[in-house]
TrEMBL record:
Gene3D superfamilies: Ribonuclease Z/Hydroxyacylglutathione hydrolase-like (3.60.15.10). InterPro entries: MBL (IPR050698), Metallo-B-lactamas (IPR001279), RibonucZ/Hydroxyglut_hydro (IPR036866), Xnuc_lig_assoc (IPR026360). This is Putative mRNA 3-end processing factor. Residues 15-177 form the Metallo-beta-lactamase domain. GO terms for molecular function: RNA endonuclease activity. Signal peptide: none annotated. NCBIfam families: Xnuc_lig_assoc.
Length: 336
């Protein structure tokens, strides 16, 4: 462990544009091009193009190539450990989206885990979160307020199916983020026996194809382009959130607008987006999952980023757990 004269984690440097691991001369989730990038997952606020070299899971590298073109990629499988300088680096499942990982750093007797984004609930599209004991745990705080307690996933999917069955002459148009959320909604429907064709906005096709190539069962997906209103009546149609209320949706049979997002807990957000059927379905940990994770891991220090840092730092302080907020830039809510 660290010597008394040495500050815990003084070899990890948080900067506005990423976390620098000094003895490895590498950056974690940098928001600007760097010579060496360790990437937790494929969302745009964590994975950017233009790095000279990237280390990530094979799935994350595939996502980056789909979005940014060829990468100077180095694939690191879950459970595999590599050495960068004096630092041992491992990738452990984060349960966020396909290929998402926590990055585990071991250096001179100290362990730091940079979790990226994570959730604790089962998800048929990705490997489940694995808690790792550590000295410093870097946690997200997207939904780090007690008001955010996500409902049961199955109940939300049932709401979608029930509305569909009650309106056989209409479609349910579900707005969902293109990476992770759209595929999860589809996979959750399939898990519950909904095997009917699901219609896709063209912007979702590439990433759905990528998920299928990596073994995620999405069933029959049909492009909206070329389909008639009669074809789509009584079916689920998936689109990016930005397409929910634009001219594109006019080709659909009297759509019931839905949106799958943790932010649907906030009724004003649903009203602002003209969402008729809010589906509270998040790929991030809610308040209880965040605090339960910190209790389970019990690190010496907690570093909090990406969201409602103050509430989680206060929760830690009330439990004599040392915590600090990081000021990283580039955060986006991913319509989650």
């Amino acid at each position: 462990m660290a010597k008394a004269s040495q500050r815990l984690g003084d070899w990890i440097e948080p900067h506005p544009h990423g976390i620098y691991v000094r003895p490895a001369d590498a950056w974690i989730d940098p928001s600007q091009p760097t010579p060496k990038a360790l990437v937790t997952h494929g969302h745009a606020d964590h994975a950017r193009g233009g790095h000279e070299a990237v280390w990530a899971t094979p799935e994350t590298l595939s996502i980056m190539e789909c979005r940014y073109g060829p990468q100077a990629g180095n694939a690191v499988a879950y459970g595999e450990t590599i050495r960068m300088g004096e630092v041992e680096v491992g990738f452990v499942p984060a349960g966020h989206v396909l290929g998402s990982a926590q990055i585990v750093l071991d250096y001179r007797g100290e362990r730091v885990v940079v979790s990226g984004d994570y959730k604790r609930r089962p998800d048929p599209t990705c490997a489940p979160f694995e808690p790792v004991a550590c000295d410093i745990f870097v946690t997200e705080a997207t939904f780090a307020l007690p008001v955010f307690r996500h409902p049961d996933t199955g109940d939300e999917i049932d709401k979608l199916v029930d509305r569909l069955h009650a309106n056989p002459d209409r479609c349910v148009l579900v707005g969902a983020y293109a990476l992770g959320k759209a595929q999860r909604v589809i996979a959750e429907l399939r898990e519950r026996g909904h095997e009917a064709p699901i219609f896709l906005h063209g912007a979702l096709q590439r990433l759905c194809d990528l998920y299928a190539e990596h073994g995620v069962r999405l069933g029959e997906l049909v492009p909206v382009a070329g389909a008639s209103k009669k074809d789509m009546a009584g079916h689920v149609v998936m689109c990016p959130p930005g397409a929910l209320n634009d001219r594109w949706s006019r080709r659909l049979p009297d759509p019931i607008t839905a949106m799958a997002s943790g932010w649907m807990r906030v009724r004003q957000r649903a009203r602002q987006k003209n969402v008729e059927l809010p589906l509270i379905l998040s790929d991030h940990a809610d308040w209880d999952e965040l605090t339960d994770t910190l209790t389970e891991i019990s690190p010496k220090e907690v570093w909090v980023t990406h969201g409602r840092e103050e509430a989680l730092v206060h929760w830690c302080a009330m439990r004599q757990m040392k915590a600090r907020a990081l000021a990283l830039v580039g955060f986006e809510d991913e319509d989650d």
